[in-house]
Amino acid sequence: MTTLYVFDAYGTLLDVNSAVAQHATAVGADAARLSELWRAKQLEYSWVYSLIGRYEPFWLLTERALDHALARLPSVDVALKPRLLDAYRNLVAYPEVAEVLGTLRARCAGRTDAAVDAAADAGSAQANSNVRTAVLSNGNSSMLDAAFSSADLLPLLDRVISVEAAGVFKTSPKTYALVTEAFNVSPSEVTFVSSNRWDVAGASAFGFRAIWVNRAGLPDEYLDFPPVETVRDLREI
Hints:
This protein folds into two domains: 4-15 and 92-236, Rossmann fold, CATH 3.40.50.1000; 18-89, Putative phosphatase, domain 2 (DNA polymerase, domain 1, Orthogonal Bundle). It has ten helices and six strands. The protein has helices at residues 18-21, 24-27, 31-52, 58-72, 81-89, 97-106, 113-122, 141-150, 173-183, 197-206, and strands at residues 4-7, 132-137, 159-162, 190-194, 209-213, 229-231. A six-stranded parallel β-sheet has the order 3-2-1-4-5-6, with helices on both faces. The longest helix is centred in the first third of the chain and has 22 residues, at 31-52.
């Protein structure tokens, strides 16, 4: 049985579109496009910097990506930038996240179904010794601390790991190795969960048991590095 569940943060546990959604009225008709451009450029910057061999904190790349998106969409008031960045520091978690993390941590602990439900509802930090939960994210530590504190998810996680320790972004094997080093496990002992198909490919190539959370019903890609399972949301894990 898998003993360690590791989740991507942005787009998997935390809704990256919620930052713009919180200010959709002020942003106007281009709100969806702004969110899409912001996310796409954020990821592009992470890949380009990794290939160049340089590392910058993900928060800095996030801010630069927003600058680019705002420049592309002159209909959006640039004065909204501080509000949008503040919203990104405090992203909303997907509605099933606390329930799923609580259930995983209670799994195989010999509790009744009622106790499992109560643990999830209360955000219990009492983990079964055989099931651990963690995050591996491109976000830098201060960014992740703010986001998971705001979402009240820290009690449900054994560890939040930032790639900043590796000095490179996913999908470098060095980033996934941070998990095996932190928990002293082999790749085959890790179930890695991400909504980003490119991240699933990287995790699969490293040897993780990778699950793709395909909320948008996207076509598959990276067929050489398939997930072991594709789900519609985290409840199906």
